Amino acid sequence: MIRGGYGIYGNMVYGSLAKTMVGGPFAGSQSFTNSVTNGVPLFSFPFPFLSTGATSTQNVLGVNPNLKTPYSQQFNLTVERQVGQIGIRMAYIGTRSVDLIYAANINQPLPSTIPFTTSRRIFPLYNVIAWYHNGGSQQYNALQLSASKTYGKNLFFNTGWTWAKDLTDTQNNGSSFARPTIQNTYIRRSERGDNVLTRPHRIYVNVIHNLPVGRDQRFLNHVNRIVDTIVGGWSTSWVSELMSGQYYTPTYSGFDPSNTNNLGPSTSFVARPDRIGSGKLSSGQSIYDFFDTSAFEVPGCPATNRLCTNPANIGRFGNSGVNVLRGPKAINFDFSAMKYFRINERIRVQFRTVMTNVFNHASFSNPAANISSPGTVGQITSTFQEQI
Prior knowledge:
mainly beta
């Protein structure tokens, strides 16, 4: 049997808009950037406030008043076939999304070798002007294979594998507006990369098995009632999931080689380093050393000193792409066993035991990825938590 489908779906963004822009269409805040001279910060506790003000402290957040509704074209083609007692399904799933909303700092000066000053901003009296508008896109392609079987009254299983590729220049964290500001306002295509929410491989196996023991079963069919009460009527189930690692992006902090006042993860921007290798370890991957940190360097630093304290004034951002590394895989097996005990013709009691992660397999989160922290970069310090 061959099936196919196509549809166009809109994404209602106005609810998120109302939450983000209470009292809109603009919102504002103020931030003060500290500086350190000869090891002494400009302001610090117990006196965290300056006696005089500074320009360009006002942040503004705005939304394009002519915002379009993002929409997705979704399509699939499925082939199904019965082979013996097993049903097999093979499907191609595709999605094309356009007019996605992204945030850009429209007050960001062009990358340049000219040192940053507030006068280089488009609007010098303002700091960050985060502007939300359309233009992002996403392209998802996946191959799905699945098989299922029911054998008599004792065995059922359902298993499948998904192989997916999801590219976007608008990383999504589940909200239409609470998104990170893109690194370079003038080159959105540099943000294109694997979607952090899509894992390339996922395998699932679900099994329900009624043990063939006891009355009306293959084994011990004629045992007495007491033995049947103990060993008969048991049902077990397995829910298993195996996933490849989640994508993540290496970063650095503390320097602004682009001269745009982009200071890396300490601000609303994310600064990506220069990539000089694949970042993959050929062997010996562990929670203490998960990726090849020598494959990345602070932009402007020489190859002999990747984490130098005086990068050259190169006037550009790092060349590393988005989500170029993949974290540890996730493996989980859940098991349960259950049995009904009949009290009388109208009442029965169920005994059930459930074990989560029955093999106690650790699924770790992504490693620390800031190369400016050599003491922790590449190390995994916590178990799995979906990063959105």
